[in-house]
């Protein structure tokens, strides 16, 4: 008969046996070929804060079980430290054949001394491996720091590894033991993958610099620098610099920790973001904050560069400053992402594009920091989350740049076509206005000067035909009429081209013109104020400005029935601000410049790329004109 109590006791015994059996098996790493197990389950370590422990003292500590295990994660992370670390790996070949094995440490920030301590009283130095060594100088040809060794069938070994930091503020590495064949196969595939990433980043770097030289847009140059800094980080993070760089350059770059290159890339990332979103104009407060942060990072990078060149990272000053720079990297990165999100929420289109492009790198960076600080990795993409995230970001940003360039090109072509049509219309309008002005001047000459000359001709002809002596009052009358004709001709010529327009200042021309108005129309009070100091107007700008103001004043005199006309002209912020005001009867704005004078004003304003505002009612009219001065 089935008994639940018996079944529970039986299950408990089996579970405990399995658990304790597993615990016992983890005292020694049992290997029979290619390995896929996590080394953290078998490796124990001891931290030497004094840097003074001898090999014999360490062996004594190991025999007294002073070494401990760090099982919480597959990666060993000491966090910030300046200590030496000793690692012990007990390993046994449980297969029936000889195994050619490799114990690997994937990092280039520390030296490793390997010892065989299988025999308690006879420790043997197996190898000394350093990042300073090139590939052909190492015991095993690999980017990782490796110990090759052989295990015969059923053979047991206990290997001790001493690690001391060189150019970092923490020990952080992935470690494994596997066969030589498996190691070489994995390394080959990994190298091909990283090489493809590097090739892609190299292409993107050159492509963005090419865009800068073609389009002359600063954002592409900074994006090219950003991609180049990613290449330097990739070389360091994936330990492929020793495979690709010449010896002198590799030894120089070896002085700089990977966080240094992340700081450099953050400088360029901020600059690209600010230029791409036009943050200085759209979000000036955020721009000032990020501008300060970018400058602070630049100073930090320069100081850290000098410290890395002249001091070891383990020196007190360099060590403390490296912690500061890592903290600055984290804080500013968070601030940048908050800025991206804030500007996206505010509806800035380019910020939304940037957020979409940076979303994966944001998640990857958070995951990277969790892994580095608290050993909490949420996910992992081969060959690295940061690398994959940067590839996604660079690809999307470059694609967005290209889409924007194509879109801007189409818009520019449409604007060019529209401007071309507008210029044709404007040219036609200017020609029509010139023709109408010529007709008006011809009519004025015919009705004014022509009629006066015709009358004077008949008057003189009658005097000559009478053959009488010319009296003094007749002479005075003839001279008076000739003076009036001269004045009419002078006024007409002044309308065609104001005197000395090539050399005179616009304020002098207008002052003289308003004095003339006051003499001609004494029943109207004229006012003119000017302050255009610093304005450098071309001859064309002077002429059109003069024509616009005189056209508006002439219209007010002829049609507004005003008793007062005031004109003001000021130069401010590279613009000429003109105001013409009268106290007349006003006019209907819906008539839309039906007269030649007002149409001429509008055409000249369009020609100078300015704008005009008009207010008119029964109490008078006011014209406000703004003209950009190049």
UniProtKB/TrEMBL annotation:
- The organism's superkingdom is given as Bacteria
Keywords, comma-separated and alphabetical: 4Fe-4S, ATP-binding, Cytoplasm, Iron, Iron-sulfur, Kinase, Membrane, Metal-binding, Nucleotide-binding, Phosphoprotein, Transferase, Transmembrane, Transmembrane helix, Two-component regulatory system
Q: Which residues cross the membrane?
A: 197-214, 221-239, 259-277, 289-313, 319-340, 352-374, 386-406
Q: Where in the cell is it found?
A: Cytoplasm
- Which major enzyme category is it? transferase
Q: Which SUPFAM superfamilies match?
A: ATPase domain of HSP90 chaperone/DNA topoisomerase II/histidine kinase
Entries under SMART domains matching the protein: HATPase_c
Q: What is its main location?
A: cytoplasm
Which positions make up the signal peptide? none
Q: Which residues form the Histidine kinase domain?
A: 444-630
**Catalysed reaction(s)?**
ATP + protein L-histidine = ADP + protein N-phospho-L-histidine
Would I find Transmembrane helix among this entry's keywords? yes
Cofactor(s) needed by this chain: [4Fe-4S] cluster
Record-listed E.C. numbers:
2.7.13.3
Pfam families per record: 7TMR-DISM_7TM, 7TMR-DISMED2, HATPase_c, HisKA_3
Function, as annotated: Member of the two-component regulatory system NreB/NreC involved in the control of dissimilatory nitrate/nitrite reduction in response to oxygen. NreB functions as a direct oxygen sensor histidine kinase which is autophosphorylated, in the absence of oxygen, probably at the conserved histidine residue, and transfers its phosphate group probably to a conserved aspartate residue of NreC. NreB/NreC activates the expression of the nitrate (narGHJI) and nitrite (nir) reductase operons, as well as the putative nitrate transporter gene narT.
PANTHER family attached here?
NITRATE/NITRITE SENSOR PROTEIN NARX-RELATED, NITRATE_NITRITE SENSOR PROTEIN NARQ
**Protein name (Swiss-Prot/TrEMBL):** Oxygen sensor histidine kinase NreB
Lineage, uppermost ranks: Bacteria, Pseudomonadati, Bacteroidota, Flavobacteriia, Flavobacteriales
């Amino acid at each position: 008969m089935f008994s639940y109590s018996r079944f529970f006791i039986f299950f408990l015994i089996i579970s405990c046996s399995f658990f304790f059996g597993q615990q016992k098996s983890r005292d020694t790493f049992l290997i029979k070929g290619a390995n896929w197990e996590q080394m953290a389950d078998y490796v124990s370590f001891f931290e030497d804060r004094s840097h003074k422990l001898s090999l014999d003292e360490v062996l004594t500590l190991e025999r007294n079980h002073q070494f401990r295990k760090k099982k919480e994660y597959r990666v060993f992370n000491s966090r910030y430290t300046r200590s030496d670390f000793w690692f012990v790996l007990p390993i046994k070949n449980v297969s029936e054949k000889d195994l050619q094995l490799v114990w690997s440490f994937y990092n280039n920030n520390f030296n490793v001394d390997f010892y065989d301590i299988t025999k308690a009283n006879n420790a043997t130095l197996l190898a000394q491996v350093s990042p300073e060594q090139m590939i052909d100088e190492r015991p095993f040809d690999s980017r990782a720091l490796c110990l090759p060794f052989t295990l015969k069938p059923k053979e047991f070994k206990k290997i001790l590894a001493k690690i001391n930091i060189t150019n970092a503020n923490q020990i952080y590495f992935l470690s494994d033991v596997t066969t030589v064949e498996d190691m070489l196969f994995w390394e080959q595939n990994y190298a091909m993958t990283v090489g493809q990433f590097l090739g892609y980043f190299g292409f993107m770097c050159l492509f963005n610099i090419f865009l800068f030289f073609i389009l002359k847009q600063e954002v592409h140059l900074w994006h090219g620098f950003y991609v180049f800094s990613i290449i330097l980080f990739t070389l360091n993070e994936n330990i492929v610099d020793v495979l690709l760089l010449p010896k002198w350059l590799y030894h120089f770059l070896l002085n700089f920790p990977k966080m240094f290159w992340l700081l450099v890339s953050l400088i360029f990332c901020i600059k690209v973001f600010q230029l791409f979103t036009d943050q200085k104009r759209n979000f000036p407060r955020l721009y000032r904050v990020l501008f300060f942060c970018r400058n602070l990072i630049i100073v930090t990078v320069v100081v850290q560069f000098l410290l890395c060149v002249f001091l070891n990272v383990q020196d007190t000053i360099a060590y403390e400053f490296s912690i500061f720079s890592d903290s600055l990297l984290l804080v500013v990165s968070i601030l940048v992402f908050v800025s991206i999100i804030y500007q996206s929420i505010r509806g800035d289109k380019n910020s939304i594009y940037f957020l979409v492009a940076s979303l994966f790198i944001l998640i990857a960076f958070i995951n990277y920091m969790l892994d580095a600080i608290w050993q909490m990795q949420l996910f992992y993409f081969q060959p690295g989350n940061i690398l994959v995230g940067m590839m996604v970001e660079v690809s999307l940003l470059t694609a967005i740049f290209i889409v924007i360039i194509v879109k801007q090109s189409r818009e520019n072509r449409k604007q060019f076509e529209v401007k071309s049509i507008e210029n044709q219309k404007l040219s036609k309008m200017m020609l029509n206005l010139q023709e109408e002005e010529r007709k008006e001047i011809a009519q004025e000459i015919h009705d004014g000067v022509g009629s006066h000359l015709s009358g004077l001709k008949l008057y003189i002809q009658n005097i000559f035909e009478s053959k009488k002596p010319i009296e003094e009052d007749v002479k005075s009358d003839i001279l008076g009429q000739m003076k009036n004709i001269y004045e009419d001709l002078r006024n007409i010529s002044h309308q065609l081209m104001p005197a000395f327009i090539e050399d005179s200042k616009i304020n002098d021309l207008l002052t003289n013109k308003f004095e003339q108005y006051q003499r001609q129309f004494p029943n109207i009070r004229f006012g003119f104020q000017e302050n255009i100091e610093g304005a450098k107007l071309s001859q064309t700008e002077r002429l059109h400005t003069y024509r616009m103001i005189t056209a508006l004043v002439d219209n007010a005199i002829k049609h507004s029935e005003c008793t007062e006309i005031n004109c003001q002209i000021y130069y401010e912020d590279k613009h000429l601000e003109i105001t013409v005001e009268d106290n007349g009867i006003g006019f209907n704005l819906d008539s839309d410049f039906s007269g030649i004078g007002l149409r001429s004003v509008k055409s000249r304003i369009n020609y100078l790329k300015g704008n005009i505002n008009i207010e008119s009612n029964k109490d008078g009219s006011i014209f406000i004109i703004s003209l950009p001065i190049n």
